Amino acid sequence: MAEPLRIVEGPALTHQQKKDLLNRLARVEGQLRGIQKLIALAEQPSDCDAVAQQMAAARKALDRSFVQLLAASIVTQSGQAPDLEQARSSAEHLAALLDKFA
């Protein structure tokens, strides 16, 4: 079994925010392993329906992780900014990420 990731301290996200995101991604990883098994065991056309449903659920969970990452980043980075200009700059950067990847 792989050893857990070491969470480093820094201004990007709090320890708890990182822990929450890693837990969410571990659940997505489990969903993907389950999908792989469903595909490997698929025999009937109706089995594809179950695969599609699980893929959609995994995609939604990953999208939710993305939103959680950006929301946590906004709260943490804006809250830790030394001044209003830095807070604005951080918010603009995160808004650009949202626009680019969402």
From TrEMBL:
GO function term, MF aspect, one: metal ion binding
Alphabetical list of Pfam families matching this protein: Trns_repr_metal
Domain of life: Bacteria
A biological process from GO: negative regulation of DNA-templated transcription
Signal peptide (residue range): none
Entries under PANTHER family matching the protein: TRANSCRIPTIONAL REPRESSOR FRMR, TRANSCRIPTIONAL REPRESSOR FRMR-RELATED
Similarity field: Belongs to the FrmR/RcnR family.
Official protein name in the record: Metal-sensing transcriptional repressor
Species per Swiss-Prot/TrEMBL record: Massilia horti
